[in-house]
Amino acid sequence: DTAVSQTPKYLVTQMGNDKSIKCEQNLGHDTMYWYKQDSKKFLKIMFSYNNKELIINETVPNRFSPKSPDKAHLNLHINSLELGDSAVYFCASSQQTSATRTDTQYFGPGTRLTVL
Amino acid sequence: GDSVTQMEGPVTLSEEAFLTINCTYTATGYPSLFWYVQYPGEGLQLLLKATKADDKGSNKGFEATYRKETTSFHLEKGSVQVSDSAVYFCALSGGDYKLSFGAGTTVTVRA
User: Fold this and answer.
1) How far is B67 from chain A (nearest CA, A)?
2) Fewer C-beta neighbours within 10 Å, C or N terminus of chain B?
3) Can you spell out the DSSP letters for A9-65?
4) Do A102 and B94 lie within an 8 Å CB cutoff?
5) Which residues of B46-56 are buried (b: 16+ CB within 10 A; e: fewer)?
6) Cα angle value B35/A43/B103 (rounded, 5°)
7) pLDDT tens digits for range A27-82
8) Distances (CA, A) of A17 to A75, A77, A114, A115, B47
9) CB atoms within 10 A of CB A63
10) pLDDT value at position A55?
């Protein structure tokens, strides 16, 4: 069983389009995340959600809108795609709560987005 | 804010060589420290972790010790294999619902 899954694995689209990436975890975790990995492999947090509530929005443009319909899902919708949005997007989850200090994050396989 | 500085690569080694990847951090409080590995074309996998000073994390022959006095968490393996070729990321969590990553070190092991 895949612990953290993402769809699609690859996404190729034109500039200006709107696209979504879906993420699901079956670990029973309370917290989910989106990270962006650029062409130099650098990883940076975009969003964190705890119990469906937004905890972190790390200065991400408004064109990016995460949505968490339930604790097991965190989807990422991107409007008006730009060339600079091309990257690999990773979803992750952990059992971190306000009561626990830190917890291991488990990552999905990534979605490679290419904007033409 | 929290930050991680990681040895820049790429690193190329022969099989059975000793591998060290340096990692130092800046953080307030007492963060947890992690090493993640990304094999070609795959996502990130947790390699090992340590949650307090002097803890040693180990997995698959890799080790790292949480050194508070030097704010370091260097990764070591005594004898690498071709299958260890990957990108290695040092990361820290300060309890603020995010991981701060180093820049990643690409390791290539040649037979």
Assistant:
1) 18
2) C
3) SEEEE-TT--EEEEEEE-S--SEEEEEEE-TT--EEEEEEEETTEEEEE-S--TTEE
4) yes
5) bbbbbbeeeee
6) 65
7) 999 899 999 999 999 999 999 998 888 888 887 899 999 999 999 999 999 999 99
8) 17, 11, 12, 9, 37
9) 13
10) 87
Percent of chain A with pLDDT over 90: 75
Tokens 């509530």 belong to residue: A53
Residues sharing a CB contact under 8 Å with residue A73, sequence separation 6 or more, in sequence order:
A22, A23, A24, A25, A32
Which of B11, B32, B37, B44 is the best substitution to test chain A (most A C-beta atoms within 10 A)? B44
Closest C-alpha among B20, B32, B27, B38 to residue B4: B27
Please say whether the beta carbons of B102 and B73 come within 8 A: no
Give the closest of B43, B51, B98 to A107, CB-based.
B43
